[in-house]
Amino acid sequence: MSNLNDLTALCLPNGSRLAADETECRLSLSLEGQPLLTLRLVRGPELHVHLLERFNRSEGQAFWAACYWLFARDPDCLRLVWQLQDVPTEAVLSGLLVPTPVSGQYHCERTLFWQLPQPWLGHSLTGSYPQQMVITGGKRHPLRPVKPRGEVYRRFDARLGAWVSLRTLEIEQDLARFNRWQNSPRVASFWQEEGSLEQHREYLSKLEADPHTLTLIGCFDDQPFAYFEAYWAKEDRIAPFYDAGDYDRGIHMLVGEENHRGPHKVASWLSALVHYLFLDDPRTQRVVAEPRADNAKMIGYMQNQCFHCEKEFDFPHKRAALMVLGRERFFDRCRLA
Asked: Are residues 265 and 221 in the same domain?
């Protein structure tokens, strides 16, 4: 393993605690103080995992926890090679483990692991929502599901040592905060949405009634620090400027709290935001953004998270950079931990 995190425990979104006793060749995991499984580890170009003992837990839960621990421990690890005597039916059916031609051998691919929606995703109907094409404002697009309310995503960032979560914006709860953020000179220079509380109430109310945009509050350790807008690109003003897919999502981003700025924080919240949007609907193939073309700092942060600049183009109010991140590239390159 090349880039090990110094972990002794990981927290899961449901509040339970995964703890480990790990040596070079052995790993024992417990969940909430109860033993989960014991593994023998054989390190090499790939990490080989041998099950020694599994305690009174479902195999799917135990194997998922082990994969999570090992991927979080080493963000550079792309594949785990499991050696098992019995067929892990539950894990195979979920996509956690993939059978290989070698008898008793299974792969856990990092690219597949992070596409499993639970436990990161809050309750969502988006991924199973049926497709029906409709026309809104002259634009043909899929009918969108009812927007969620409450927390939609939560993950413990092992490198940051903090919870990163997303919840939907509630106007009465968040209006004063949103107003303060938008009136910050730093934010106003890019968003250009300074105004009064009533102006911002009207702004947020319009978005709340708009089925193509979801307003979100980003939190570190449950403390709000950022505002995001996630929109369906097909119905958005960006659609005429590129070949927008039916389930492409776009993002607008605002970090309001000064103490949560910096590249290490951006890496955490931007990967979480994109992860949520790809999990929310498996039909989403791209996440796009259109920062101002002269916002070199944000463009650089996005490129560090595997976005690429497709082109520059002119909105009526700004010259923008079209930043694009494909689903395959995200899960192939993501360094979630």
From this structure: yes
Residue type, 39: L
Name residues whose C-beta falls within 8 Å of residue 282's C-beta, 6 or more positions apart in sequence.
115, 127
In a domain, residue 119? The reply is: no
Catalytically annotated residue among 109, 258, 290, 312: 290
Q: What one-letter code names the amino acid at 86?
A: D
Report the C-alpha gap between 74 and 67 in whole angstroms. 11
State both tokens at 327: 């689903």
Indicate if 290 belongs to the active site: yes
Q: What is the pTM of this model?
A: 0.94
**Is 307 part of any domain?**
yes
Report how far residue 132's alpha carbon sits from residue 93's, in angstroms, rounded to the nearest whole number: 29
Q: Name, in order, each residue with C-beta under 8 angstroms of 158's C-beta and a sequence gap of 6 or more.
A: 5, 7, 10, 72, 337
Pairing mode, strands 308-314 and 213-220: unpaired
pLDDT (tens digit, 9 = 90+) per residue, 78-101?
A: 999 999 999 999 999 999 999 999
Q: Could you report the per-residue pLDDT of 200-217, keeping only the tens digit for each?
A: 999 999 999 999 999 999
Q: What CATH number does residue 46 fall under?
A: 3.40.630
d(CA 182, CA 248): 27
Domain end (from 91, 113, 135): 113
For residue 151, the enclosing domain spans 126-333
